[in-house]
Structure formats: C-alpha cells, structure tokens
Amino acid sequence: MLLSIKTNLFFQVKASFDGEWVCPGEDGTALYENSGYGRPDGNRLKLFPEEALYLAGKGKLTVDKLDFDALAMKFSEKPGFMRRFLVYRDIRERGLVIQTGPQDFRVFRRGEKPGKGRSQYLIRVLSERDFVDFEAIAADSHSAANMRKQFVVAVVDDENEITYYEIKTNDLPKGESCDEIKKVKGRLTGNSVFVMPREGKNFLPEGAMFGTWFDENRLVLSPLETLYLLDKGLLEIEGGKEEEFRERLEEEDPELLFKMNVYESLRDSCYIPRTAYKFGHHFRVYNERSSHSAMLVHAIPGGSGMPMSRVSRSVRLAHSVRKKMLFACVKQKNIEYIEFARIKL
Predict the structure, then answer these.
(1) 298 is catalytic
(2) 37 annotated active-site
(3) Is 78 a catalytic residue?
(4) Which residue numbers delimit the tRNA intron endonuclease N-terminal domain (predicted)?
C-alpha cells in the first residue's frame, strides 16, 4: 500500500505500509525536523497510528483508497486506540509536541521538540471505567521521577472529554505536630475508651488532638486512637481488657488493620489524623496545629485498587474543600502515599 504525505510545504512523499506508518526520504524527515512527528529510522521516518490519523484529519496525509474514517476504523482494531488518539489530538491542539513513550506518550516542553529540547510529561491514558491499580500507578510515577519527568494520567470519559491528573509518590515530609504524651488510664465503654478528666487534660496535650470531649468530665478516644496509644504503651485500660477490645474491633471492621498501619505512620510522622467519614474517606490530616486539615487520606491494601470514577470523585471533593487527595497503599508495613491532583497542561 502506498501513502501520499503532504506537508505544510505542499510536497508529497510516497511510502510503503508494512504494519507501521513509514515515510522514507528527506522529504519525509521534514515532518520530524519541522514539527516533531514520527521517529527517524535510518533514511526513513516512522509515523505511528495516532500521528498518521492526526495528520490525515488535518489534510496533511492521504492514503490511497482510505479516508480519515476508514483509517480510524482500521486503527481502532487495536483496543484503546481511540482514547489514545483523543489525548494525542488534544495535546497537539494545545501546541505541544507529543510522541509515543514508555507509558503511552511523552510530551515536550512548550516550544521544544525531539533533538531540540526534552520531554516534560509521561502520560498514561485511562478510561473513566478503568480500574486503578495503585501499585502499577506508583511504579509508573517512580519511573517518571527517575527520568525527571512529571507523571500524568489522562482520563477519557464516555463523552470523550479529557481530565488530566498529576501523580506524585514522594514520601511525606516530617510534620510539625509532635507533642510529648504521658501515660494515661481509661475505662472501656463499648468500642470507646473514656479517659479520666484530669489525665485527659494533663497528659494528652490539646495540640495533639487526641479524642473528643463527651462532656466536661469525659474525654472519649476513638478505636484507632486507643489502639495507637496501647501499642505505644501510653494507655492502660482498667480491668486489662485490651485483647478483648482488639478482637472485637477486628471482627467488626474488616479495614481495621491497614487503616491502623496508616494511622500509625501519620502519627509517627508528626501528623494528626482524624476521621474523614463525612468526606467519604478514612482520614483528614492536620499539620502545624492548623484548624484546617491539609489532606484527605484513604488507606488501600496492597494489590487492590478502585474504579477511576471513584478516584475522580475523591479528587474533586478534596479540591472543593482545599485539601490534597492521597491514597495510602499498604503493603505489610511499607506504605506508599500516592497523590492525585487535577492539572491543566
């Protein structure tokens, strides 16, 4: 099959099609040199399907007996092609040079192109109905960071609109809310522990934000706060009912173990985690004794994930209340904090 390629200079180049789009000769390489299309291969230029279809749609590439619709149908035999094409077209229309990359695409800095600049973003394309594998996303983010690139997930919804999310997996910096805590005594009541008022005021500093005041005489610890203080040897429950308390919680809460791992990690890093039930997540997290929490954190057991639609709702909610959205992927005692943030390229 022969291809006839027309550039902005209105000259045509013919090339054979052998499973990849190929444009041979000096005229073909002008597409690469002028606008960053394709990849040189000796004296030829390979155009990948997304590039070829984009050029065809712009009237810069014609293929004998195949118009734009026919080309789109042919390329769409490969799963996910149209989603990738929509992202490719959107980024090209923004005036940026984009090429296939180690994920789906790499995008160059504005005004730069292959051979005369370096790429800024690595992009993975997903559908709104895809299931997000957090371990895989974290691996992509680490790979991008090692290459000094920003990792971006481009999500194409069912109406072909695109949302871009920057993904970061940096370790949380040390917080500034560490207070010395002295050992206290408490009384088990259901799944809560009442701390004696004198001890509650004197030994659980207000800045550490442990518990809530049930009334003027009783400070109530949540289950996770209770477990944390027990594990640190900072709480004694009257009657020695610690094991009974733990067993009951584990039976009632299937998420308890990995939530507890994240809670302990945040506390040990001098952050203050509190329940984020009203936001639909596990923790709202405070730092620097602020009255406004800085992050929402949702604990995820290693090897699991969630639908992209749920991730999207979480990010939008966090943005609306001026918080960062982090997913804490727990693998044994190792915790990977993965931040999703909407961006505009």
Answers:
(1) no
(2) no
(3) no
(4) 18-69, 184-247
